[in-house]
Amino acid sequence: MQENIKTPNQRVSPGPFDLEEREMRELGYKAIDILVDRWISLRDKDVWVGGTRSEMEEMFRESPPEEKSSAMEVMTQSVDEVLTRSARVDHPRFFAFVPSSPTWPSVIADALVSGFNVFQGTWLESAAPSQVELVVLDWFREWIGLPRSAGGILTSGGSAANLNALVLARGEIDHLDTAVVYLSDQGHSSLERAARIVGIQENNIRMIPTTKDYRIDLQLLNRAIQQDRNSGLRPMVICGNGGATNTGVVDPLEDLAEICEREKLWLHVDASYGGFSVLTEEGKRDLRGIHLADSVTLDPHKWLFQPYEVGCLLVKNLNLLESEFRVTPDYLQDMDLGLEHVNFCDRGLQLTRSARAFKVWMSVKTFGMKRFRMAIQNSLDLVKEAEAYIRKSNSLELLTSANLGIVCFRINPSGYDLDMKKLERLNNDVSDDIIESGYAMVSSTRLRGEFALRLCVMNHRARREDVLGVLKAMEETAQRLIL
Ligand SMILES: *Cc1c(COP(=O)(O)O)cnc(C)c1O
Fold it and tell me: Could you tell me the pTM of the whole model?
């Protein structure tokens, strides 16, 4: 009977978006060829490609066409013109900001998920993909060391996870005008934004200064909490760094947990940057105490080698997450299959969401955890080598030691006695020169107001010669520019 109501494909007349089967396959195969060609030639390509707004306007401003074109022509031309005109953040010598270098199975997984167009807001529409997300979340939970009562949700990224965390931390507080959020002056900007969005007054967002080693100053934190209580405010949440984006430094999480316990505050650990380093012994040591958090943000599109986008929020008390976000309108009444059938729309902002866990699942099952550990360890080791090189160099000055894949330094050739302004100009010029050459990319930041170059290794392709090659290129360029 089922069969009778189905219409065999071949009897249906073509719709507006139908392509010939042959054309579909050719387009897909060509796309794969383009991606594999890019993959195998990445090392020989420029790290950075950019353009000004007016150049881009010139190239791309047009009205949408009325008529059909060849799909193959549109694709190849668009790839050439659009996709190749962006920074190659997975290039083995992209050491700027936070690099991201996905595995091939994860890339294919995302393409497959798009093709299947999985709706993963409800169990009814995605039983197996939802189960896979539950399993992947449980892997993360175990790696971090959270109790079995914990659970979470995959998000678009760390910013979204941080926002959801602050929504939970806000919880039952109804006088938001007195609620106070604490983070260190090394905390990520997304936390400040999240605090604003959940309704914290701008002057109740406390940026606690850090000590010499860029960890949150516990004494100043304690004092701020007491002062706030004394003036009738309501301390709400402490956000600790699980690897600060600036320096890789981790806050003293055990101490923060103790303060939160004593003061009855929510502890959120933003481990977007460094979280997955817990897969190594070294990272586990650096992040000790992370399991004491009420909520943890992770970012698989950083150190778990997944393509954009996938972030993650883990919450110690999963029930809180669901009671905070669950809303059940009439038009979704069919989705209620009983509590053990998780509807991920109950755990966050998105109703329509894609199956983000699938890429994690496929890549972990393909390569196994040993290789993921090796890849993370490789970053840690390379940055330590960079630190050793900088320490020995006559023209480079170490500013922060190697921390979870990041080292900060500046060009400061001995014997020149350059003042702050000249130093900054030289560092900028060298950095620009190297970016423009296409060879590598390192970004800059400020540490206590002073200009710093920041080298971040988070790429499974990066080798010793890539990291040391960039430092050598900087020394040489500095020598050339300074003469
Ligand atoms: C990258 C990062 C974020 C933001 O994550 P997105 O995935 O870019 O939204 C938040 N916190 C820290 C520490 C980060 O490194």
Answer: 0.96
